[in-house]
Design a protein that fits this description.
CATH class: Mainly Alpha
Radius of gyration: 16 Å
Oligomer: single chain
Helix content: over 70%
Number of domains: 1
Protein name: Group III truncated hemoglobin
Number of strands: 0
Bound molecules: protoporphyrin IX containing FE
CATH architecture: Orthogonal Bundle
InterPro entries: Globin-like_sf, Globin/Proto, Hemoglobin_trunc
Organism: Pontibacter qinzhouensis
Pfam families: Bac_globin
Strand content: under 5%
Structural class: mainly alpha
Keywords: Heme, Iron, Metal-binding, Transport
Largest sheet: none
Distance between the termini: 47 Å
Length: 134
């Protein structure tokens, strides 16, 4: 974590993205609600997951298009509900605010909230309509 008296700046480089992603997932792994969900799915592939997340945020925030994928599909079958997304966003916003400030930092929080909303809707739909699909 940065020194208290060090001035926070915006998310401007890949190094900044890595700092944000590493700090965030360290906290997520230690969280009693989210930790087990991630460990179950990711297991020994954390390095790969972190690399994917660097590329995702690099694409979103720096407009350097290194990520391609369908994140929605990866979340639809996870055993999570509203409380997991609230916790995820709480840890994410806190981490962004502790480390950074500015337009990109605000965009990161906004984008995460929109995606959490979308995933939660998809998961709900999937739960309610599973009988009809299968
Ligand atoms: C309850 C909250 C969440 C949980 C438990 C969760 C869990 C996971 C897991 C386990 C994976 C790996 C999936 C796999 O490789 O099969 C993953 C991938 C990913 N997550 Fe989440 N996630 C959550 C919320 C979010 C949110 C809010 C975002 C929005 C920024 C996000 C963005 C992504 C992206 C971009 C990937 C990579 C997908 C790919 O492989 O292309 N996640 N997540």
């Amino acid at each position: 974590m940065k020194e208290q008296n060090q001035k926070r700046k915006d998310i401007l480089s890949l190094a900044d993205i890595k700092q944000l992603v590493d700090t965030f997932y360290t906290r997520v792994r230690q969280d009693e609600l989210l930790g087990p969900v991630f460990e179950e799915k990711i297991g020994s592939n954390w390095e790969k997951h972190l690399e994917t997340m660097y590329r995702f945020w690099q694409t979103v925030l720096l407009d350097e298009r290194t990520y391609q994928g369908s994140p929605g599909a990866k979340h639809i079958t996870l055993p999570v509900g509203e409380e997991h997304f609230e916790r995820w966003l709480g840890i994410f916003d806190k981490t962004v605010d502790e480390l950074f400030t500015g337009e990109k930092a605000a965009e990161a929080k906004w984008r995460a909230a929109r995606m959490a909303e979308m995933f939660a809707q998809k998961i709900n739909y999937f739960k309610n309509n599973r009988g009809a699909i299968l």
